[in-house]
């Protein structure tokens, strides 16, 4: 270990080093967002937009592919901040295995509020998250199908069922909340969405590798309120 790092490690706490690291991470994310905001107007000519949130490497032609961390995304936006899209400018918002990375009490309501704002009336919000009910039903039953699924996704350090549960809930420090159908539907309803329903995997939309173990739900932005005579 280099002398400077060795000195810092021996004279500071893990919590302090982590806080300093987090400040640097937030600064880098802020810069990426600033660049993306300035790039965003070039996509508005193709409105109504289709937004692919947290796209990773799963880019979709004809969509605005958004991912704060992936360099190949069209826009590296920080979705925790206001989105650089006008009201009613999107017809479809899709997110697969990204929503669980948002903190529940502040970030989830913000992402849903921004989604509702930029969607047109009748626009679709389509989300897929790890199915936590499936995991919970499998706990204590070594023959449950969930434990066969984990072999392809979870690291070798997961040895016990509780190891796997912790990884599902946290994925290191990346996952912020665990979702089931009832809880996700409640958040969507409270944010103003209607026609909320679980759906089957869609061959034309969802990743093949994610179809097993994912809870997919679809919701609609309601139409404008009717005027009273």
Description of the molecule:
This protein is an alpha/beta fold. It has a single domain (3-131, 179-220), classed as Vaccinia Virus protein VP39 (Rossmann fold, 3-Layer(aba) Sandwich), CATH 3.40.50.150. Helices cover 34% and strands 17% of the residues. The protein has 7 helices and 6 strands. It has helices at 3-11, 14-39, 107-118, 132-138, 145-149, 161-170, 181-190, and strands at 49-53, 64-66, 90-96, 119-130, 194-199, 214-220. A 6-stranded mixed β-sheet has the order 2-1-3-4-6-5. α3 (107-118) links the parallel β3 and β4 (119-130). The N and C termini lie far apart (76 Å). The mean pLDDT is 92.
**Mind telling me the C-alpha Rg?**
20 Å
Q: What name does CATH use for the topology? A: Rossmann fold
User: Rough shape?
Assistant: globular
Identify low-pLDDT runs. Answer: none
CATH class: Alpha Beta
Q: How many beta-strand runs?
A: 6
Question: What characteristics describe this protein?
Answer:
7 helices; 229 residues; alpha/beta; Rossmann fold; globular; six-stranded mixed beta sheet
Chain-wise SSE layout:
Elements: H1 3-11, H2 14-39, E1 49-53, E2 64-66, E3 90-96, H3 107-118, E4 119-130, H4 132-138, H5 145-149, H6 161-170, H7 181-190, E5 194-199, E6 214-220
Parallel strand pairs: 1-2, 1-3, 3-4
Antiparallel strand pairs: 4-6, 5-6
């Amino acid at each position: 270990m280099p002398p400077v790092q060795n000195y810092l490690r021996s004279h500071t706490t893990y919590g302090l080093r982590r806080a300093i690291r987090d400040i640097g991470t937030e600064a880098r994310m802020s810069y990426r967002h600033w660049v993306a905001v300035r790039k965003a107007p070039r996509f508005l000519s193709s409105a109504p937009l289709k937004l692919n949130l947290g796209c990773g490497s799963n880019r979709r032609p004809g969509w605005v592919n958004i991912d704060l961390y992936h360099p190949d995304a069209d826009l590296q936006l920080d979705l925790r901040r206001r989105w650089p899209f006008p009201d009613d400018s999107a017809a479809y918002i899709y997110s697969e295995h990204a929503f669980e990375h948002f903190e529940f009490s502040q970030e989830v309501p913000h992402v849903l509020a921004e989604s509702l704002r930029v969607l047109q009336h009748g626009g679709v919000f389509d989300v897929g998250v790890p199915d936590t009910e499936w995991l919970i039903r499998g706990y204590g039953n070594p023959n449950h199908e969930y434990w066969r699924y984990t072999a392809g996704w979870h690291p070798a350090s997961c040895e016990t069922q509780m190891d796997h549960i912790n990884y599902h809930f946290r994925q290191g420090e990346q996952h912020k909340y665990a979702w089931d159908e009832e809880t996700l539907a409640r958040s969507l309803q409270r944010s103003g969405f209607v026609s909320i329903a679980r759906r089957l995997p869609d061959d034309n939309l969802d990743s093949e590798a994610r179809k097993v173990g994912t809870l997919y739900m679809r919701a609609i932005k309601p139409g404008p309120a009717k005027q009273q005579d």
